[in-house]
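1st attempt posting a full record on here, be nice pls
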Amino acid sequence: MLFSRLRRSVRIQKTGHHATGHATGRTTGHTTVTPKTEERRPSFDSAWTLTGGSSLDLCECKQLGMEILHTIAGIPSFSEFETKESGLLCLEDMISLFDKMSLCQKCSEHEHSPEFLGILCNKILAQCQLFRGFLNEMLEQNDQDQQSLLQRDYATATSQERMSLLCSLTYLQMKRLYGCVARLNEKLEEESTFDEDSWSHLRGQCFQLAIDSATLCSRATYFRNSVFW
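the predicted structure (as tokens):
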């Protein structure tokens, strides 16, 4: 499950440090693992009620949506992940699930699909915007924190090259999210519940996020090149 992967990727905190979250820390050896509380995860059924029905029972999109909601509710601060890339991988998993939903023909034909898919997309977009801001702070501070950048250890890569790679990978995912929203705009526009203004605004926000992420790539590349001069 995607939510289980998220919990495994959160940084293990040293004993004696202040544990975040509301759950009681579980001590193993010399480390304390602070799990996210299950109560923080929103009820999928309550979120589903906001859309007026459960029409998507006919396809797998209800389960995909449930997984996205559970994951979003369990995401800690991006600084708590083992690496910065771990946070991006969490977003990538959610975007992949949403991508499947955007391709589902049955889902797009249901009356309540536009509203529910819009809710999901707004929640994913909010997390992506937070991550983009997280990377922006990384560039401004020249990655002075102790959190590793990438999952793999590129022995010959400099810190600046790792930052540039992370920003490039982020841009690719933000571009994917925009593609999902653009696709849904075209597929859902014939539905009676389709709110053209809301979806147009959502599409514009995703487009701006992709542009802002591309700007991060340019900044990271400039910073990397300036180091060698």
